[in-house]
Here is the input.
Amino acid sequence: MIEFSNIEIKYGNFVAIQNLNLEIQRGEFFTFLGPSGCGKTTTLRCLVGFIRPARGTIQVDHRDITNAPVEKREIGMVFQSYALFPTMNVFENIAFGLRVKKLSKAEVRQRVFEIARKIDLSEEQLFKNVSQLSGGQQQRVALARAMIMQPKIICLDEPLSNLDAKLRIGLRGELKKLQRDLGITTLYVTHDQEEALTLSDRLAVFNNGQIEQVGTPFEIYNKSASRFVCEFIGDINNLSPNVIREINAQSSQRLDPEKEGFVRLETISLERKDGFARLSGIVKDSEYDGVFTKYHFDVMGQTIKSIEKNDGVVLFEKGGQVDLFINPATVMQY
Ligand SMILES: Nc1ncnc2c1ncn2[C@@H]1O[C@H](COP(=O)(O)OP(=O)(O)O)[C@@H](O)[C@H]1O
Ligand SMILES: [Mg+2]
Here is the structure.
């Protein structure tokens, strides 16, 4: 539905995005994930029409919109800072776009009430001033203001970043549900990998103005395409070539003995499993958090970490000797 082809975006002489190619399907929840400054916002603003690319095209439903004005694109946008009109009440903030389009009073009223219901804003809240609302409620208003225009696509740029952790997780669930119910194609920008994994149908990992990988959360996490993606997307072990050679000696799977290998913490088992290589470790440290414990083991002169679900009985003591089992099929190499 959305197709970026050979997009290059510049600020003066600085190339913020180099040759971006990406296709997003109708109805998808698609996320741009990456560290600050990698070009996520720039790409989104280019789609919305605030920035023109130096090169390349953007198509929506096979129509070239590269140079179309913002208001002709039917794309809604919600920012990290809510950017609400401070002098208007909630109702007028939400109604703004419809008033500009000169819809009748009755129709405006009906549509504002309808969207408010969907987005869980009470009638009482509609007639409050925006400054009387909490951050989470203000962000709902910003979302309602964008959605009421019935855009084909909605773009959300770090919409939850200004909220505290608990509220963020709550709103995340609501946002996902709303997106499913409405089936609207959604582009979401975040630097938070957990948010990206839980919300997205697919995501693109950005690094330094380029896309490193596009895939489902499972693919990005378990089949990371590059060392950058591997390390950005969560905690990981970096196995030395020494350890890789030991794994090779015990299995039929051939890993590259000259390279390091990357394995996720939760793929390491402390119980024997078929086809896994056994390595002997000494417990150096542990972080107990109730449900899980993260262990740091000394294995062949390097640290290997694992995450174990606690059973309320066993906790390995510092200095203890433990066997680690590694599945060669989960080792990623670059
Ligand atoms: N208006 C601007 N003028 C000049 N450089 C900019 C401007 N906006 C962003 N940049 C630069 O472009 C790069 C990408 O920025 P941005 O898209 O905001 O990153 P992200 O949203 O991933 O944090 C950064 O190096 C940033 O400093
Ligand atoms: Mg940004």
